[in-house]
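seq as requested:
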Amino acid sequence: MQGTNAVEDKTSALAGRGLVTAALLLAMAVTSLEQTVVSTAMPTIISQLKGLKIYPWVFSAYLLAATVTTPI
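C-alpha cells:
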C-alpha cells in the first residue's frame, strides 16, 4: 500500500512541476513580447516628446513601471 502512495506523490509532484514550468514559460513569452513592443514604439514616443535628451527618463519610467507591476 505504501508503494502506491509514493507513486501517487511522485506523479502529483511532477504534474505540479510541469504546471510551474508552463507558467514561467508563458510569463517569459509575454515579457519578451512586451519588450519588443516597447522598443519598437520608443522612437515614436521620443519624437512626440520633442527630444532625444528625455530618452533616459522615458526608459527609466518604463523600467520602474515594469518592476512595480511584476509581482502583481
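The mean pLDDT is 80.
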